[in-house]
Design brief:
The protein is of the alpha+beta class. The protein has a single domain (about 5-129), classed as Roll (Thiol Ester Dehydrase, Chain A). About 25% of the residues lie in helices and about 45% in strands. It has 3 helices and 6 strands, in the order βααβββββα. It has helices at about 25-40, 45-50, 120-129, and strands at about 5-10, 50-60, 70-80, 85-95, 100-110, 115. Strands 1, 2, 3, 4, 5 and 6 form a 6-stranded antiparallel beta sheet that branches. β5 and β6 (about 115) form a beta hairpin. The longest helix is centred in the first third of the chain and has 19 residues, at about 25-40. The model has no long low-confidence stretch (mean pLDDT about 95).
């Protein structure tokens, strides 16, 4: 399991009316880090032939984050099975290491040749383990 990490700083645009990060913003961050992780680890040939679509999303909001908080985002692939992949994304306060949000998502690999689900090739599995 290869952990991919990225840090971000909460901006005013990330906040809701309660002055903490809006739940929708976390969803966007989850999708963005999944894309970054994918694009970093696989070849251009794979990127030209496959694409991931989201099937299921489960998010637990444990602690709020606020303006100017620095957040460490960690993601990894928990499991691959057939054409499905289970991705975990965790958000931590960068300075306290307090877990803020955890998500578990099921993604489906799509072949761009026929726009249908595709069994995950060993080359992709190896890139993430």
């Amino acid at each position: 399991m290869k952990i991919f990490e990225k840090s971000i700083v909460v901006s005013k645009n990330d906040l809701d009316k309660l002055n903490h990060v809006n739940n929708i913003v976390y969803i966007n961050w989850i999708i963005n880090i999944a894309r970054n992780h994918w694009e970093t680890l696989v070849s251009n040939e794979i990127l030209d032939n496959y694409y991931w679509v989201l099937l299921e999303h489960n998010i637990k909001y444990l602690n709020p984050s606020f303006l100017n908080d620095k957040i460490q985002i960690k993601t990894f692939i928990e499991k691959n099975e057939g054409f499905r992949s289970i991705r975990v994304v965790e958000f931590y306060n960068y300075y306290t290491n307090k877990l803020l949000v955890v998500s578990k998502s099921t993604w489906c690999l799509i072949s761009l040749k026929n726009n249908k689900p595709s069994r995950i090739p060993m080359e992709i599995i190896k890139a993430f383990t």
